[in-house]
Amino acid sequence: MTMPSLRQVKDANLKLKNVKPGLVTVFAGGTSGIGESTCREFIRNTVRPRAYIIGRNKMEASRIVQQLKEINSEAEIRILECDLTLLHNVDRICNEITKNENFVNLLFMSAGFLSMKRQETSEGLDSRMAIQYYSRMRLVVNLLPALSAASVAGEPGRVHSALNAGKEGKIFLDNLLLEHHFSLKNCATQGITMTTLAFDQLALIHPDVNFIHTSPGVVRTNITKGFGPVVSFISGVFLILLAPFLTTPVQESGERNLYAVLSKCYRHDRAICIHLDRL
């Protein structure tokens, strides 16, 4: 699926003020890039929202909280410091959330980075695969009861993974952890395809919850920092030069993601893929 015009997106987001106050959202990767911009638009366009922001950088998180409170003084914002490459950290964070919330209306997952080499965590997973797929699926499974409860009560109950829907391809069924054949492309394709397949299956089992996998396009973020300072600088210059032609401003990406997440147009009993590129 594709998106309507940016003007239509903005108009629809403004109408979210009419949605039930107090929506609860979990942002995994909400301290930078796409996650941060989507969180800002959620706080800006909803009434008395409650947001749990998961991120590693406590200093950045404090700055973001202050800015979000200036946008909407009625917002309740809680920072959960966590390294999402480790699944036991995901379990801890989910337990903390479900102790406080019976309902979760939205789980928005965008945490990620790029890496040329396989970097194994203490749990035996590649760190990039862990953050773009395994930790996201762990978040989904752990929070599904709260998401389902929200939907059954007539509220939004949605899961959104911002990765690269539409770029599915061959996966290594005998090498799901990519202990062999690791490359930037193989890692991306593996995570993207496994996400779409997992969402398809989860949507069949939990038809009350909406599962959305999106392709945000090329957004001006700092995702290449995992390549090191030299490559990050070069890629940054490249994006600046091409910005007017091929990339999406991070604020616009947030606006489009919020529309995809909460628009009634995308309620469906099957997992769906949406392309958020600029039109």
Automatic annotation (TrEMBL):
Pfam families: adh_short (PF00106). Coiled coil: none annotated. The keyword Repeat does not apply. The chain crosses the membrane at residues 226-246. InterPro entries: NAD(P)-bd_dom_sf, SDR_fam, Sec_Metab_Biosynth_Oxidored. The keyword Amino-acid biosynthesis does not apply. PANTHER family: ALCOHOL DEHYDROGENASE-LIKE C-TERMINAL DOMAIN-CONTAINING PROTEIN, YALI0E05731P. SUPFAM superfamilies: NAD(P)-binding Rossmann-fold domains. It comes from the Eukaryota. This is Uncharacterized protein.
